[in-house]
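Could you please review the protein record set out just below?
***
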Amino acid sequence: MKKNLLLKWSLMAFVVFALLLPYGVAGATPADGKYTFNYTVLKDGTDSTSMMDSYTVKPANLTVTGGQAYVTLTLKNSSWITKFQTEQNGQYVDADVVSSNTAANTRVVGFPVANLDAKLNAYTEVVIPVLGYNGKYDVQLKFDTASITPVAP
């Protein structure tokens, strides 16, 4: 009887773990598919929200293919953001421009993410000619893996 109960509890724990694994258990990449999730743009090396966060649209999109995560997010005031890079293998690389809408002044950028639980270093340059403003910023993207939600097919 005890053996049977132990087997049932072990099976139940396995099922719960298997169901939660694709949706943000620490260190895990979700199963292949399309998802949305929240994120925050942080001031470099802090947990404080960067002004750059207000230039992004939430949520972001996540596509996982072959266990590889690829994030796309929308930048607002796209004409002001002249550079958006993420750190890949120790070097800053321009994010892919997935699409842009000049009428709405938005741009969708995409980049691979090796670890969704870690902050991703990013670099951006903002130029606002009418104000004579030119800023260069190191920021970090913090992904909210608990908010990962599958997109209906």
Notes: The chain has one domain: 2-150. Confidence is low (pLDDT under 50) at residues 9-26. The CA atoms of residues 51 and 147 lie 22 Å apart. The first strand starts at residue 33 and ends at 43.
